[in-house]
Write a structure and sequence with these properties.
mainly alpha, 286 residues, 71% helix, globular, 16 helices, two-stranded antiparallel sheet, 2 strands
Amino acid sequence: MLANQQRVAKALEERLGLQSNADMLVKAMQYSTLDGGKRLRAMLVYAAGEACHSDQQGLDAAACAVEMIHAYSLVHDDMPMMDDDDLRRGRPSCHKAFDEATALLTGDALQTHAFISLSNNSLPAAQQIAMVNTLATASGVDGMAGGQAIDLQSVGKKLTLSELEHMHQLKTGALIRASVRLGALAAKNVSEEALSYLDQYATAIGLAFQVQDDVLDVIADTETLGKQQGADIARDKPTYPALLGLENAQQKAQDLIEEALNALKNLTGPTQALSGLAHFVVQRAF
């Protein structure tokens, strides 16, 4: 895992070492993307690629792309018209470190640069198109952006469990599922059966990740989280602990990880990295 974290960090630095007259924008892009973080989505790209014996150059392109999309979403989420968070990973959010206009443009530029990264490799055109389609779908109205819109509309409302899960399958889960699928699509002739089992795995850990996020918003402190503790409670957002109770929410996360691990048993390639990341999702403290 550490080797892949270092690998994607180097690849991101190379792709964001931009020469531009818009110096402030480039600095804000670097500030928002090169500050570490868990790199979970990139790690999932590499882990799925390992299971499917994928092309390494294609994996680097995809890993950087999902991290840029994730970074753009965080920059926009933190802005006053969205979640209005002043902290991100223990540092001032982009709009605080720079300004709101720069933060808005930073998200826009990171989103477009993700697709430059994703299409800049030597994979056959058919594979590249499938990968671009996967990431675009996961980022748009049927994925992350759509889920965020539902989230904003749900403040102060009571959601059913199925409604809450649907929202998070879009807002958080879509990009996690895309990360796993991209890792597999960087391989030659990956089977539909393998893609199906990988999607079952990714769907389960994507939901488990959000459940654990909600749990940590209750039990962790601001310094550990790197963002304001209790922020979702303060905004009256629907969460799993609020709906199920804290202990039941923690158990749900564990059950989802078991579901993910069971899906991996159907794959023939090496799945140790995917298994390790599944456990990390519920064992993490931030």
